[in-house]
Amino acid sequence: MTTIITALILFGVIVMVHELGHFLVAKWVGIPAEEFAIGMGPKIYQHKGKNTVFSIRALPIGGYVKFIGEDEASDDPRSFGNAKVWKRFLVILSGPLMNFLLAVLLLAIFFMSFGTVQTSTHVYEIIDGSPAQEAGLQVGDKIIEINGVKLDESDEEKGIEVFRDIIKKQGHEPLNVTILRDGQTQGLEIKANYSEEKNSYEIGIYFGKIERHGLLSAIGLGFLQTGRLIGIMVQLVGSLIFRGQGLNEIVGPVGIVGEIGKAVQAGFQDVLNLAIIITLNLGIINLIPFPALDGGRLTLLILEGFRGKPLDPEKEGYFHFVGFVLLIILMIVVTFKDVTTRWF
Fold this sequence. Notes:
Layout: H1 2-29, E1 33-48, E2 53-67, H2 85-114, E3 116-126, H3 131-135, E4 142-146, E5 149-150, H4 156-170, E6 175-181, E7 184-190, E8 193-195, E9 200-202, E10 205-211, H5 215-243, H6 253-266, H7 268-286, H8 294-307, H9 313-343
Antiparallel strand pairs: 1-2, 3-10, 4-5, 4-6, 6-7, 8-9
């Protein structure tokens, strides 16, 4: 039940933010909306505003904003189809952009709550049952010397490399490690284990130090990390479309709910990470130039701008309807794969 509730909240918020982008920019440029809907199918709740009906529908698989004169001829000068190309372009583009801004916000929350791991000779994590744990090493200890060699404090990354090199050279022989704990130095003897998988000797620790961030720093990092993630995801989507790589890894609603369930069990940090990935994916996928997606609409608007005259609204509506049907078929196929993979 917790998984279902969390999934509904995540999907609801991410879809609402996307549609809110369309709605707010349309209102700003003077295009009225008939309906702002979260979900698909029959209405289960609605509220009539001054110009717009706000509704929640039964199937939590998306949402939409219906504008006056969208995909149909209209004599209303305020209608979507009669608006200038640049206004319609901004309205369509604003949905994915809002998903990217949501990712920035979620990342900022993440950095303020959990911080970032900085390169340091402090012990960040210790593997259970490792030689380091058996020797009494603790998270937060700062390693300052190994076998009489002091680690360079001015260049901690170099100090970590020196530490690892000495472990490799020492092999099974005991290591004399000096640490700084609570302002006091302490000596420990650690004997490394050989890892056949990595073909090296290890004592079972990860280096690093958590750095907490204030609001402005977290927002700045949020923009940087969002840019990096978008770059990575665009490459993955490109590989999927043009090379077919990762085709077996596509998941639908059932698969996503399963991942949310795992994240819920792991804790808030994993749920937050998954929300960031989902909202970025929604933004990027919507920008693909395919019928019924925002990217398809943007492509037609660019074409209209070059032609200097609008496309036939009924033909454009049919074009997007065909795309929508194909997307539904794809969702059914992916959902079937998810179900058979998980339960059969």
